[in-house]
Amino acid sequence: MNLELKNVTLRYDSLNALDNLSGTIENWKSIVIIGPSGGGKSTLLRVLAGLESPQTGSVRIGTHQLKFEEEWLREYRKKIGVVFQAYNLFPHWTAYQNICIPLEKVHKLSAKESKRRADQLLLRFGLIEHAMKLPAQLSGGQQQRIAIARAMAIEPEYLLLDEPTSALDPQLTYEVLDMIQELRESDTNLILVTHEMAFAEKAADQILFIREGKLHEKGTPEEIFHHPQTIEMKEFLSIGK
Questions:
Q1: pTM of the model
Q2: DSSP string, 34-62
Q3: pLDDT digits over 28-66, tens only?
Q4: What is the pLDDT of residue 241?
Q5: Which of these, 106, 89, 107, lies nearest to 98 by C-alpha position?
Q6: Residues in CB range of 235: below 8 A, 6 or more apart
Q7: Which of 1, 82, 95, 187 holds its CA 20 to 30 A away from the CA of 30?
Q8: Three-state SS for 27?
């Protein structure tokens, strides 16, 4: 899969969240976006998800040349999986319902097919014992894993994850990262924003380093973490040590 960004600019009032951002990444299965807080990582992910529209520039990902028109974006969003750090589970639905009901109501799958997909994913990720629990009865890690299972239930072309472990303690972080690694190894296309540098190095085919709305450096984990080229990248890595 390829990703091509050309002169992408997104402003909030006087703030350039993305500032003429350009870059091309070819033949990837897993992209990890890193950089300082407030640098534009999550904004870029939201653009790729069709949830934000830049004022200028173009985005091509896989077979999709993104059209920033609401009718087109509504259909596009049905083809990709998105997981946010806040889980976004419906609190009055069980874990099982959080997976099944969107499949039936949004994607128009039959109840039988929705159940098949939910059962398969809950078993695959060791969550079947939590199927009938409400989100409030689950740990943060379990909620996030249910959210990932829900995103995978639509059989997405690719999965976008925005700092999926940011609110979790170390043990729960491990559980979620282990699940994401399993997805990567099963050939799910992933684009992931994270502050977990060790995981980024392990999980990525390509790393994007974004700071102040610009793409400062891109490359393989070996290139980025062991042979950084820019002053900004070197500074970021030294702060993280």
A1: 0.90
A2: E--TTSSHHHHHHHHTTSS--SEEEEEET
A3: 999 999 999 889 999 999 999 999 999 999 999 988 999
A4: 53
A5: 89
A6: none
A7: 95
A8: coil
